């Protein structure tokens, strides 16, 4: 793989059985992301955007094609190796934060580092630094139930970025927020992208997000097409 790409997907195919019929969700989807690049993916509900993110992140396997993350194909890794590679190179942000309710903000953000065998002291220090950077330095010991929706999503963003991954995959990261908070969250993401040089792939229905990305692709009939409605070629 060309070293300038942190993520490359080639001719992805993915189908599901629905009501006894084969439903093709991805049909020859291609995608390449450079380091630090911000990409929006749009498409109608049910077009397969979440499926695409799961395949890109190695959470689901394609029926056809391949995904390469930082020089490594997911298909060449067993479950343990895949989890380790994902921990090092891929972050996830979802519409709903999926924080652990019994853990503090600090503990939630430190967890990916601890899973990656970083010492407790270093994990706490790095989590503290990033939470402070996203404006939660005074809320480190608060549990999710004690935080606002916007604050919980900031914790989720910090958790995704704390390992300094190569790429962060986001599924409607502002979709559960009010417009004012969503705008603030977008500015935060853009700031972190520029400061940390981490690639973003953002699935969104929000044109305000898409227009601030470097590129926007549409998922149409199982393929990714650019703004000129031309298929993306690997």
Spell out the CATH superfamily of the domain at 5-99 and 166-225.
P-loop containing nucleotide triphosphate hydrolases
- Within the CATH hierarchy, at the fold level, what is the topology of the domain at 5-99 and 166-225? Rossmann fold
Proportion of residues in β-strands:
25-35%
**How would the global form be characterised?**
globular
* CATH top level label of the domain at 5-99 and 166-225: Alpha Beta
The total count of strands amounts to 10
Oligomer: single chain
For the report, how would you describe the main beta sheet?
Answer: 6 strands, mixed
User: Which structural class do you get from the secondary structure elements?
Assistant: alpha/beta
The secondary-structure element order is: EEEHEEHEHHHEHEHEE
**Regions with pLDDT < 50 over 5+ consecutive residues?**
none
Number of helices: 7
Specify the helix fraction band: 25-40%
Gap from first CA to last CA: 11 Å
Whole-number average pLDDT? 87
Give the neighbour order of strands across the main sheet: 6-7-8-3-9-10
CA gyration radius, whole angstroms: 18 Å
């Amino acid at each position: 793989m060309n070293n300038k790409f942190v993520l490359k997907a080639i001719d992805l195919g993915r189908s599901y059985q629905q009501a006894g019929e084969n439903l093709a969700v991805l049909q020859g989807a291609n995608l390449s992301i450079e380091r630090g690049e911000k990409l929006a993916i749009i498409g109608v509900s049910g077009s397969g955007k979440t499926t695409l993110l799961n395949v890109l992140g190695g959470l689901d396997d394609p029926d056809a094609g391949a995904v390469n993350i930082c020089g490594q194909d997911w298909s060449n890794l067993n479950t343990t190796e895949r989890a380790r590679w994902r921990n090092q190179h891929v972050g996830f942000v979802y519409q709903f934060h999926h924080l652990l309710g019994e853990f503090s903000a600090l503990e939630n953000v430190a967890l990916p580092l601890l899973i990656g065998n970083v010492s407790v002291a270093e994990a706490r220090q790095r989590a503290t630094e990033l939470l402070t950077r996203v404006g939660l330095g005074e809320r480190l010991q608060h549990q999710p139930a004690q935080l606002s929706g916007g604050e919980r999503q900031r914790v989720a963003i910090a958790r995704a970025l704390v390992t300094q991954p190569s790429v962060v995959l986001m599924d409607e990261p502002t979709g559960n927020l009010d417009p004012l908070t969503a705008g603030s969250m977008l500015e935060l993401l853009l700031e972190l992208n520029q400061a940390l040089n981490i690639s973003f792939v953002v699935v969104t229905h929000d044109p305000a997000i898409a227009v601030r990305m470097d590129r926007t692709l549409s998922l149409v009939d199982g393929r990714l097409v650019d703004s000129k409605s031309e298929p993306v070629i690997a």
